[in-house]
Amino acid sequence: MDNRNLLVFTVYLIIVTYVFYKAYQSLETQITIDLDTVSLNEELVANDLKDIVDIDFKKLKPSYQLDEVKTLKIGIKNKSPEESAITIRVNWDESSITNYEGNVSRLIRLTKGLAEVPQKQVPSIIVANQKVEEELSDDKDLGGNLFKVQKLKKAAQKADPFILRLSFKVSQPGAADRTCFINCKLLPKKLRWTKALVIALTPPPKKKA
């Protein structure tokens, strides 16, 4: 091996070592958050909402630093056909999120210009075949962490879930309104080695000029 090839190989080895080191570091400081879809489907079936409501968390980040879980993005769709005239109201003041200290906090729907926790929130109205996407916090501190870092770290080690409890009012012509509560179980987990490696190899997004 000549000097040029040796130099290239040495640089390559340094880069590979650095990438693996960064991936290893991220295992201690990053987590993923996954929706328990089986549990959610059981909730929807039990409340006779399986054919009416679809709930997703598709805009969750691929990974989170332990100290950056400040909001959660949720999508809620009224799957019923337009001719059914079924309307869903999401009552945010009756919706809540658990933490890892035995407390339950009111969910806050973040809207443009919201600077402090509102005393009362307007429900989200979802007509047939329409969807809303919302960013949620809690009523402890807008912009603050949803969970204490050490509590979240311990929860991620055990995949101990936290729960978003959503309050729905379903209205349909010719039938009495009904209120349902749906528990969305979300599982924080330690970042897997393979995912950490992918993140370490992915270049950061370019900043907009």
Topology:
Layout (H helix, E strand, L loop, with lengths): L2 H27 E6 L1 H10 L6 E4 L7 E2 L6 E7 L8 E4 L5 E3 L5 E6 L14 E3 L4 E8 L10 H10 L3 E11 L2 E16 L2 H9 L8
Antiparallel strand pairs: 1-3, 1-11, 2-4, 4-9, 5-8, 5-10, 6-7, 6-10, 7-9, 10-11
Helix pairs in contact: 1-4
Tell me about the biggest sheet?
A: 11 strands, antiparallel
**Which residues sit in consecutive blocks of at least 5 with pLDDT less than 50?**
none
Number of helices: 4
Distance between the termini: 45 Å
Order of helices and strands: HEHEEEEEEEEHEEH
Percent range of helical residues: 25-40%
Number of strands: 11
Beta percentage is 25-35%
Can you summarize this structure?
27% of the residues lie in helices and 33% in strands. It has 4 helices and 11 strands. Strands 1, 2, 3, 4, 5, 6, 7, 8, 9, 10 and 11 form an 11-stranded antiparallel β-sheet that branches.
Keywords for this entry:
11-stranded antiparallel sheet; 209 residues; elongated; alpha+beta
